[in-house]
Amino acid sequence: MNKKISLGLAISLIAIASAVTFILTSFFTLQSFNKRVVDVNEKARKYNSLQAMDSFVHENFYGDIDENNINDGILKGYVSGLNDKYSRYLTADEYTDEKSDNAGEMTGLGLTLEKDDSGYIKIAGIMPDSPVSEKDIKAGDFIVSVNGSDVLETGFEKSIELMSGTDGTEVTLTIRRDGVDNTYTLKRRPIEVVTVTGEMLNNYIGYIKISGFKQNTSQQFTDVLERLTLNGAKGIIFDLRENGGGLLDALEDCLDPLLPEGIIATAEYSDGHSETIVYSDESEINLPMTVIVNGHTASAAELFAASLKDFGKAEIIGTTTYGKGVMQSTTELSNGGAVVLTIAEYKTTVSDCYDGIGITPDYVVENNDNSDEQYNKAIEIVSQKISGT
């Protein structure tokens, strides 16, 4: 028997449904409104405090005020208030330097420097294909004068500052070796930063050192890997000690030829959604591998090590890594500066995120003052894998 709903009852049900819809809509609208009110009130408090500070400083500060510096300081203070050690504000000049660094390029002389106990500047290293490499200047020499100013009188920091400059400008250095001084005039120019080097060990093990992941790292890595494999490398050691990380795109390019096809690593954002950040195609090198790490191996370098470990391609040797498993994005602002903001955490598709924890090696090995035990252990492990023992 069919049951019929009376017209009055139908109208009543429609009225109830409309009322419920109205109540729910009103509830969420009120919530949204209240949130906006809170946001507006909070912003008003911040801006009122800032305006009060600005008025007080301009009325009472004894000295000149650089408004650009004030604006940069405000933005730096805002980001520092997030209490996140990886988020930061970059001034226009700092952002320009950051872009050059990410590109794997620097403008200068090509020197790695350190302060000596004598007060002079010791040359710790010289970059290949740099202005300094073209002169008779060697690691271990001392810089005693910059543009005619004695380093002891000028001071270490100021002397370093005098050595910095733009492309095409010149600087005069007095270099001391074995008590003999020689003066050189050098022209600053762009220099490619080498982040990947490699060599053959024992005629059958390829050793690849990666110091960072820059825009030019991918090509350098490909060139070194191809050279070593063509020369007959039967196993590979990757050395990521002191590698603080870098660009995820460069990391992905380096991992691609080493891993099987599929999603290797993902990032999870604050709203809960995930994205693939490292994917590998079907081409894959199958050779015994190890990775050397230490406490300064961080960020993308840790993800490199974790990816090879988690997909069964390599064992890790050394000490527990730094533990940075969060990623940042850089956004340019209208004033030419930029904000670097932590936006997600990441991990391989096999293991958990290592942020704040680090990666524990398969073989925990400490170095001593006399020998590189981590390096020796890596050679031992790869040799055993190659021989099948």
The number of distinct β-strands equals 19
User: Into which percentage range does the β-strand content fall?
Assistant: 25-35%
Question: Can you give the mean pLDDT?
Answer: 89
**Compute the gyration radius: what is it?**
29 Å
Distance between the termini: 83 Å
Order of helices and strands: HHEHEEEEEHHEEEEEHEHEEEHEEEEH
- The number of distinct structural domains comes to 2
Overall geometric form: flat
Which fold name corresponds to the CATH topology of the largest domain?
2-enoyl-CoA Hydratase, Chain A, domain 1
State the CATH superfamily name of the largest domain.
2-enoyl-CoA Hydratase, Chain A, domain 1
Written account of the structure:
There is one protein chain. The mean pLDDT is 89. The protein folds into 2 domains: 106-191, PDZ domain (Pdz3 Domain), CATH 2.30.42; 196-387, Alpha-Beta Complex (2-enoyl-CoA Hydratase, Chain A, domain 1), CATH 3.90.226.10. A hairpin with a 2-residue loop joins strand 7 and strand 8 (180-187). It is flat and about 80 Å long. Helix 6 runs parallel beside helix 7 and helix 7 (248-255) packs parallel to helix 8 (300-310). It has helices at residues 7-60, 67-80, 92-103, 151-154, 156-163, 217-230, 248-255, 300-310, 373-387; strands at 88-90, 105-108, 111-115, 121-126, 142-146, 149-150, 170-177, 180-187, 189-192, 196-201, 205-210, 235-239, 262-269, 274-280, 289-293, 314-318, 326-332, 338-348, 363-364. Strands 3, 4, 5, 6, 7 and 8 form a 6-stranded antiparallel sheet that branches. It has a 6-stranded mixed sheet with strand order 10-11-12-15-16-19, with helices on both faces. Strands 1, 13, 14, 17 and 18 form a 5-stranded antiparallel sheet that branches. By secondary structure, the chain is of the alpha+beta class.
